[in-house]
Amino acid sequence: MLLPVRVVSKLGLATPCPRSASPTYSLTTPRDAARSSAVSRTFRSASDSNAVWHKFLPPDLDLIVSTSLPQPQPPVGPSLTSKKDVFLRLCSAPLLIDDGHKSFALDKWSGKKCYMIGTRDLSIVWRDIPCYWRRSSPHVSRFPEVVELLRVCWLEVHAKMEMRLLSANTYYAAYLIFKFVYGSYGFKNQALEVSIFSGSGCERRNIIWIMTGSEGGTNSLGQRRWVEGDRSGEFFVDDPPAGEVQINLMEVKGGNWKSGLVIQGIELCPTQMTSRERSRQCIGRRR
């Protein structure tokens, strides 16, 4: 991490560099800049500058915002007077884009892009058959609608996204965002098989569990909040990004009937991976 140049006074005390040194902060992470602002007023003045926080915003932010839906508190505009305010707003309040089919946010530690693919952009087997799935809006969600599983014995969900939309040179993790309603059943000790195909041609496979314990959900009232499932898998975005990432979740071997699962979407977030995880993730190449 590059730190601002320090000047040693006659008393032997190190003092921070003036505001003009703010470009050096732009080579650190948002977390480093936030910590530096607590050192002194001089550091705060430099680390809070627009020159610093502009570097943490994606270069295509204006294009992304242009596809967003109108909202009471937009991430850019007269109400936000600094680049830091824009950054923090995008970390805490995801932006609905692509006619409300996706949401966009920033990771507060790294500044990398985060997306959630809503159910309108998911491919769900039998979703359009009313006796199996239904579109639902009463659930509190960032999207206009979610989907609720009524009754199926074959659960299959697919998602895809162009790699160019994600942050380059970054490892991402995929998560299923869901909850259960009262009376859910069929998910006790049932594993979902996950496969991820990335633009680099790697195929990664994993097993996740979205429910354990007694039938009927985590409690008699069901779950009122959305749950982030186990990490479905990871993939790497090259520099420059190319191709698309495909995420497939399936439970097709058990054959038991299932009900009560509500899906909000699949979230793609930057992740920290160990060297061991990296070495074992790519288990094959697409032919």
Q: What's the helix and strand layout?
A:
Blueprint: E1 7-8, E2 14-15, H1 22-25, H2 30-36, H3 41-47, H4 50-54, H5 61-66, H6 83-92, E3 95-97, E4 102-106, E5 113-118, E6 123-124, E7 133-136, E8 146-149, E9 155-162, E10 170-185, E11 191-197, E12 203-209, E13 227-228, E14 233-237, E15 244-251, E16 259-270, H7 275-281
Antiparallel strand pairs: 1-2, 3-4, 4-5, 5-16, 6-9, 7-8, 8-16, 9-15, 10-13, 10-14, 10-16, 11-12, 11-15
Characterization of this structure:
Helix content is 16%, strand content 32%. Mean pLDDT is 77; it is low at 1-21, 212-223 and 274-287. The two termini are 41 Å apart. A hairpin with a 5-residue loop joins strand 1 and strand 2. The longest helix is centred in the N-terminal third of the chain and has 10 residues, at 83-92. The strands form three sheets. Strands 3, 4, 5, 7, 8, 10, 13, 14 and 16 form a nine-stranded antiparallel sheet that branches. It has a five-stranded antiparallel sheet with strand order 6-9-15-11-12, with no helix packed on it. A two-stranded antiparallel ribbon has the order 1-2. With 287 residues, it is of the alpha+beta class. The chain is built from seven helices and 16 strands. It is elongated, with a radius of gyration of 22 Å.
Kindly name the structural category. alpha+beta
Radius of gyration: 22 Å
Average pLDDT taken over every residue: 77
Q: What's the quaternary structure here?
A: single chain
Low-confidence sequence ranges: 1-21, 212-223, 274-287
Largest sheet: 9 strands, antiparallel
Amino- and carboxy-terminal Cα gap: 41 Å
Kindly estimate the percentage of residues that lie in beta strands according to DSSP: 25-35%
What sequence of helices (H) and strands (E) makes up the elements?
A: EEHHHHHHEEEEEEEEEEEEEEH
Helix content: 10-25%
What count of helical segments does DSSP give? 7
**Net shape:** elongated
